[in-house]
Structures are given as structure tokens and as C-alpha cells.
Amino acid sequence: DAGVIQSPRHEVTEMGQEVTLRCKPISGHDYLFWYRQTMMRGLELLIYFNNNVPIDDSGMPEDRFSAKMPNASFSTLKIQPSEPRDSAVYFCASSLGSGAFFGQGTRLTVV
Amino acid sequence: AQRVTQPEKLLSVFKGAPVELKCNYSYSGSPELFWYVQYSRQRLQLLLRHISRESIKGFTADLNKGETSFHLKKPFAQEEDSAMYYCARGGSQGNLIFGKGTKLSVKP
């Protein structure tokens, strides 16, 4: 298995634009997590899914953020409209309920 | 609330010195505990988990239920150990709760 795959690796966008981050979890894993990492706040859990169902989205900062998991092999995190303070590295991770394996992350820069 | 506390933001040691990265967790049943490592601009990697009682790259971590601690130790630090280290615990609903992380800097 290639591990958790995220795309794009880097994204630079202008304020106000819509951004979509994508994640393919490890096959067979039934948990999927979205994290945001910044220097100021460290690693923050945004939302996580179990069997494609959102379990806890209390970490999603605002209504501008939304996440979906239409099937077991794909998830998206969307920011609309994007703002400069959304600049961060966004990690996706998957697990079987014990520990988690992370993707390489998407480095988002909003200018 | 389920919490993980890493009291040190930065730990700096010289090569060959012993290292201990501290981690305390809020008590709640029998949590699963993990250490993750993140080398510069890379993904987080699972370093070890308490149920395995293994040693990875010379690191070990012992769960102390009395002190609710899971400190990460290595007897002789190497320069390549320089990285961010995150302690994490499994939550009651399958999630993973991370500490703020400790940056380890090993100087030559």
C-alpha cells in the first residue's frame, strides 16, 4: 500500500478563492482524520470520520470549512472562501482505530 | 476532558547525552498511548506505541499509570534524532489526541 495520499502537495491561492484538499486513506482503514498544523497552534484536529460518517467536527474553525467522505477511499476538505489565516499544512491520516498513519500533507498558502 | 500534556516546547541536548521527552495524559480508563516523530517538513510517523513495548531507533517509552505518564527516552542522542516529537493518546471514540509537541535539538 502506498500509504495515505494527499493532493496537492502545495497550493498557493488568492484570498477569497475556493480551495479543495484531497485525501486517499489506506485501504481498509475505517477512520479518517483531518489535521491542521501551524507554528502558533501546533497540530489541531479539524474533523474525523468513521466508516465515512463524520463523528466530530468540533475542530472545524468556521463555516468556511467543510469536509466530505463520499466513499471509503476518498475525502475532501474544502475552504470557501479562503483567507490568509488559513495558511497552514493540512494533514490527512487514517487508522483502524489504533494509532494513525499520516499523509505527506498539503502546504496551503493564501495570499 | 481527555488531554495530553508535553511540558517542554524545546529540548536541546548534546550528541551522546541521554534524552527524556515528557508526556502526561489525563486519566480515563486504559488509554492507548503513542509517540510520533516529525522530521523537518515531513509527515508525522508513528515511532512507537505502548502496547508494543518495543524499541525503535533506540527510543523506548514506559507507561506509568500511577503518574499517568508516557515519557520517551533514549540513552544516547544522535544528531539525526533532531525533530518534533508528539505524544498522543487514543480517545474514547476512536480519535487521536495529540500533545503540543516537543522540538528536540541534538547538537554536535
What does this structure look like?
The complex is a heterodimer of chains A (111) and B (108). Chain A is mainly beta. Helix content of chain A is 0%, strand content 56%. In chain A, strands 2, 4, 5, 6, 9, 10 and 11 form a seven-stranded mixed sheet that branches. Chain A has a four-stranded antiparallel sheet with strand order 1-3-8-7, with no helix packed on it. Helix content of chain B is 0%, strand content 47%. Chain B is globular and about 40 Å long. The interface between A and B is medium-sized, with 21 and 19 residues.
Question: Strands, helices and their partners?
Answer:
The complex is a heterodimer of chains A (111) and B (108).
Chain A: E1 5-7, E2 10-13, E3 19-24, E4 31-38, E5 42-50, E6 53-56, E7 65-71, E8 74-79, E9 88-95, E10 101-102, E11 106-110
Parallel strand pairs in A: 2-11
Antiparallel strand pairs in A: 1-3, 3-8, 4-5, 4-9, 5-6, 7-8, 9-10, 9-11
Chain B: E1 4-5, E2 10-14, E3 19-21, E4 24-25, E5 33-38, E6 45-49, E7 60-64, E8 69-74, E9 83-90, E10 96-98, E11 102-107
